[in-house]
């Protein structure tokens, strides 16, 4: 597995990452990691590699877009000095264009998304050992659905950035696509965004596969 | 308008109808009609025809299927002696097949849906002046979406029953379809089922149009 | 209809406008517009003209008088850059003279009401496309009732200002007067001020009629 | 004063009497008498005649009409064996005709009001030393207001019954009329029914005057 | 009666005065005067002299000693510009000597009590029309009880200050003494300090008697 | 010490015993013994004699008189099969005569107190190894205080019963009397009944002394 | 993997199983399976084998011993007609002997544990396709710790029963033992019983390994 | 006994000391001392030596380490001017090394512990009459348990500091060790740290024995 002894692994993102984590710190006793995919990953890491002493920190905040990450990047990423940084952002950047179309201040369009995202990576890359970029997703099988199509564009930006900066790439959308061959989206998430425990497990497994986790 | 002086208009259905109405009675002071389409209809009726003294009663209960309606039909419909009965049921009958596919006890399949629905109409028709049947709906533009397609089948049953029993027919699915030419479903309802105030207004307008309400 | 594509429509006022809206922003997801006449107007606008993309903002605050509006005008009106501004204020200016007669600091007498109201219009008129002025009201049929009589004087100020500044004028008092020919005030509002859903629908309809809304 | 040593004085009525009294018993420690006119009367009685040991019991229940009193009369009046019985009922009997005009089951019309009231008095008179009948009231100065006019009719029934059965008569409506020569109803009660502490003091004083209380 | 048209009457003191009044203002709608003797006085004043328009303000704060009053005197008394000022303070000054004897910082001994109290009167007397000084009290019949005896000393200071500065003097201790000839303290107050409604009525009556209130 | 290996020690009484114990069982994990003298006794017993395995059960219920104990004696004492039974009852029997003097149904007069108490002892004595009777008390130094004097009479009944039935006698009143030579009652209990932790420790020590507890 | 298409898998046990599951049903929407090992297993099953449609039901209840299971076995196991039954019970049977040693009614000693457990298996075996028995555990590395030693005895009973009845055996104690070679118990569970997410993952993995789950 | 007339005794520490004490002050009415060993000590002191007027102050704060004490030492110790200072700190310093091993910022290692502790004593010793140092503890009988062994090292630091600075030394670990010869740790504390009332009594007794308290 790619994670090494005593490394610090920091996750940042939106409500999918947040999942009621402890604030402001996002680590420690009493479900400090929340109840989403970060906790599942931590549970699997600690139970499988207890000898490694991996330190997991959750810095997700519900409702965040890449613009919100930018505003708290110094405090919540750089000041934390992680060895690994994992980012999953973009769902709200897209979703606000569809659920509140008349409020453009809340939208983050594709160009701005890529620009800010790139800046964040550039200022961070020299300071961490490894970056993992996870695509945003939309749990909808119909690729012609306008929001799914738009989300795919954002996911392609993430893929391109991962390629460019040699980051580990995790395609969460693809992971959900595989599931949707067997179940309808509402089984996992009424709103196609906030998944149940199965959906969080899917995200966790996609991440763990990408870091060569050995079950 | 088809409603006449002093008539009693009773709505029955699921969470779309319920909307936090007063229980058990569903009429009276203090937002007793809830905050959904029933309240909008009442507000428009009372403000436009204050001289008619229409009495509106809301008997929706969240989560109900047509099987649940059957169990409380005597108490909540027949014992109330309405002049008009309005029914909107079927969303949960379908939804449970998609969000909890492994629990068949919670599913109401098409044949059973029609059979129970028909029985309810037959025992009620002789006792009321008018029956209005509103289709269940799914706020999804893609007609090939499996749940939308299934919901349409249930809507066709409702249409057929309305024709057979000379009930007034309200096609709520069609009303949402018209809207979806301009807005994405998530603008109205993240889960494509529980609409915001705009969505409830669409249902209310579809009903009012069907009874020749004059703005 | 007078509203045009992508226009921003901002409502400001007291508890009748507020109705538990989201704060501080007063727009967005999750019933952000409250549950009063602003939400009814929005529901009817969005369901009837989904293609227009009208943006509705609610900046009402319970208990406000015109003096309170003045204090937050820069922040809550001018900084918002609305295309349309709708004002309904004055009920508390009058009511406090009747319910707490010994506390003059809470009263806004007629002359001061007109003076402040005029200043607000003057500084706003050059910056918006349209202003709508709605009268304060008192749901009491007896024109000789002292508080009704006083409220009518404030309503006449509003009418005069609307005339002077070519604002659209909405006579909410007259709208309630029409209703009171058929129902007693307590049917709509025990306190003759805070209406039920029917009363809010009456305000909404008076506004919509004034902007040539086509049902 | 008419009350004598160790007598038990029981009040029964609606929300004006109830005022958050202890239930089911309505006497004892910790504000068991509520915070309305019953508590004011008790405070003035106990502070002025501490040597008498008067026992005051509050059996008011919010929302009650004379039909509700009838249903609990055996339990809440006769089984209590009061020496004095004080009744104030009728506001809801009238109010429901005005605030929910379409729900006739909640109305108690004049004839039925008198018939039930008379039966209650007849079965009680032989068992108590004294009965006090207080009129229902409506804090509205305009005698032509429909609800005020209707309430006056109910008050006249109470007066007639008091005359017929030699009960002490307390004209609470007249007591409020005197006040309304100086203050507007909203100073006492926004809804013209549930008074503030001043209004409750007016009821208390009207009662105490009728029993020759010496300040 | 000594109070005149439109006068403002301000009460300041501890929990006996406070009684859950509105804060910070202590006047206005919705039981702003609390539920103790201030509300009883207001209710009797407004119901008996509605034509006078007396304005009553409650500035009591639970737990206060004369030292606490001193710290908020400018804000809560002088800045309010009352016509009449009513002070009842001293219970906590004494009580803390008995219930927390080991914490001398919370005690206000007799000399300091008189000194601060005198300063407050001197800076206020030129600015108000009338001052009323009410003794602190202890609802205990046994004059040799150490706390009762101590409280009497503080009451004597109040009496002396009232004499010196021509203030109206209200002997609340004496009012309770009269009651205690007939009832045991626990009937009025388990803790001999916080009275029930009867006890608050006794304080109110003592005040009203001192200002020649005519029932 | 008189308690022996594995004995079960059951306390029954009123709020002094109850102190928020677990219900219905009154033993077990999580402060099941409440936070009063029973918990203090248990803490001292278990910490001093951990080898004995004493089982302590708390069956106090707030507000109880000896009449209430009688009604639940079979369930809460006899069915529990204690080795030792400790009873402290009587405070409410007396207190109600003083705090609610007009409600005689709540009083338990001396004769009835003794009669019921005697019956309880007689039916229990053959079934337990040891009975401990603790006097009710009133934390008031003045022996002429009417409630203290009355409480002493009840305490004398307890003493007499203890003598008659060879029960261990614990004079809690005397224990408090000793304390009152040094501190004022309000230091321990504002209401002279519900003591602070010091007061509960006094009761605990009086009990432990009576059973020859060795510190 | 041993689980087959459409099979129903029912878990029963104590708080470790319960983990705030929905009651009474223990399956369905909204985290109905709780947040412990049952939810982790379900998440891994559904995400890995979405095509199988496995139905998972959680019937754990906090605090249960094998005696409690016996009382609800008909209702919560047999009436549910599971294909697979998974049992983890015994922690409270042992724990109560150590945390409340003086209350023997709450203890379930080894012999009774085995006897009841055996009866439950015998009446169930003919009715289900597969039984899985999981040992109770204590997260303590010291095998000489009295409670760990006792828990091991109960675990050996479970092993013996699994052997006897050809049930699948899951040694949760051993799974924790492996972990404890690397981390101290308090990292997983302050009380050595209720584990964090890592501990629940260990239980889940032990179960999944036993059924040949393929990651 | 070593405590003298009117001395002030201040306790500082972590959650064991805190026990829900009043904040910020930690003394006064209404269980201000919390419900742990400080309250037990106060209860025993006040009930046994009421004539001394000992003043007890609780400045414990949950979760504190010696580093946290250092940050609030000026405010919470020196500014309080105690005669006696009692310190019990170190449990969290050790515990965090075992329950959150990957977060070294929360650990206080032995050397730093001793260094800070020594500084606190040195700056305080000249200003107080007596210092009492209580060891941290872990309620675990197995001396080879890693956390117990570590806690013992911290206890030895405390012992050494007490010797060096002539402080009174209280060996709480030894007190618990004595108990553990008879009962299992879980009887006192599931987590081996936060004791029940018996455990707090053990701490209290160890302290009282050290100051020659005479029962």
Question: Care to describe what's here?
Answer:
With about 220 residues, chain A is α/β, with parallel strands linked by helices. The first copy, chain A, has one domain (about 10-210): SGNH hydrolase (Rossmann fold, 3-Layer(aba) Sandwich). Helices cover about 45% and strands about 10% of the residues of chain A. The first copy, chain A, has helices at about 15-20, 35-50, 65-75, 90-100, 110-125, 145-165, 170-180, 185-190, 195-210; strands at about 10-15, 55-60, 85-90, 130-135, 170. In chain A, strands 2-1-3-4-5 form a 5-stranded parallel sheet, sandwiched between helices. In chain A, strand 4 (about 130-135), helix 6 and strand 5 (about 170) form a beta-alpha-beta unit. In chain A, helix 3 (about 65-75) runs parallel beside helix 5 (about 110-125) and helix 4 packs antiparallel against helix 6. The longest helix of chain A has 19 residues, at about 145-165. The first copy, chain A, is globular, with a radius of gyration of 16 Å. Chain A starts with 7 loop residues before the first strand and ends in a 5-residue tail after the last helix. The relative contact order of chain A is 0.15.
Care to give the gist of this entry?
Chains A, B, C, D, E, F, G, H: It comes from Gracilibacillus pellucidus. 8 copies of one chain form a homooctamer. Chain A is of the alpha/beta class and 215 residues long.
């Amino acid at each position: 597995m790619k994670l090494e002894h005593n490394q610090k692994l920091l996750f940042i993102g939106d409500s999918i990452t947040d999942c009621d984590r402890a604030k402001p710190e996002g680590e420690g006793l009493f479900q400090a990691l929340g109840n989403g995919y970060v906790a599942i990953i931590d549970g699997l890491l600690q139970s499988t590699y207890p000898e490694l002493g991996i330190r997991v920190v959750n810095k997700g905040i519900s409702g965040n877009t890449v613009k919100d990450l930018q505003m708290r990047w110094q405090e919540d990423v750089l000041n934390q000095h992680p060895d690994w940084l994992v980012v999953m952002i973009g769902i709200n950047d897209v979703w606000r264009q569809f659920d509140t179309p008349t409020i453009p201040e809340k939208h983050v369009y594709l160009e701005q998304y890529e620009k800010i995202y790139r800046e964040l990576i550039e200022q961070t890359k020299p300071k961490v050992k490894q970056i993992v970029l996870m695509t945003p997703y939309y749990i909808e099988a119909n690729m012609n659905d306008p929001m799914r199509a738009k989300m795919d564009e954002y996911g392609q930006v993430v893929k391109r950035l991962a390629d460019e900066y040699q980051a580990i790439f995790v395609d969460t959308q693809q992971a959900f696509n595989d599931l949707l061959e067997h179940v309808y989206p509402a089984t996992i998430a009424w709103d196609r965004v906030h998944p149940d425990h199965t959906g969080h497990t899917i995200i966790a497994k996609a991440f763990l596969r990408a870091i060569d986790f050995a079950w």
